[in-house]
């Protein structure tokens, strides 16, 4: 009986020894200023600071919701870090989730529930499968920044 408690205590300590640094690292790298550490997004960050969503953390748009959201973000971040190291900047693809927009603008998320509620006609648009980005492309920040410059030399 004592050895099982000892094993359980060791397991809990190992999990904590891994989880606590992971959470600190995750918080440090996923803050808006943290995105600049590995992503070529300086222009997007500067644009974001001037747009209506400037008080909304990047993760609120670019991170899925649910129990495995941090793992998903971590693995996408590691892939982007690999692209950054290889210099393959165009392979990076920012993902946003319509569900985040919808839930925020229907008041389901806290503290984002202070966001203006979406107009009633949007329900029909969403049911037709149109994404928020179709009409609100430059809402969080200007899109396409720097893309044209990548192709000017070709």
Please provide a written account of the structure:
By secondary structure, the chain is mainly α. It has 8 helices and no strands. It has helices spanning 2-30, 32-38, 42-48, 59-62, 69-86, 98-104, 122-127, 147-152. Helix 1 packs across helix 2. The chain is globular. The mean pLDDT is 79.
Summarize the topology.
Elements: H1 2-30, H2 32-38, H3 42-48, H4 59-62, H5 69-86, H6 98-104, H7 122-127, H8 147-152
Helix pairs in contact: 1-2
Shape: globular
What amount of the residues lies in strands? under 5%
Order of helices and strands: HHHHHHHH
Strand segment tally: 0
| Helix residue percentage | 40-55%
Query: What is the number of helical segments per DSSP (H or I, 4+ residues)?
Result: 8
Low-confidence stretches: none
Distance between the termini: 70 Å
Short structural description:
The chain is mainly alpha-helical. The protein has eight helices and no strands.
Supply the key terms:
mainly alpha; 154 residues; 55% helix; globular; single chain
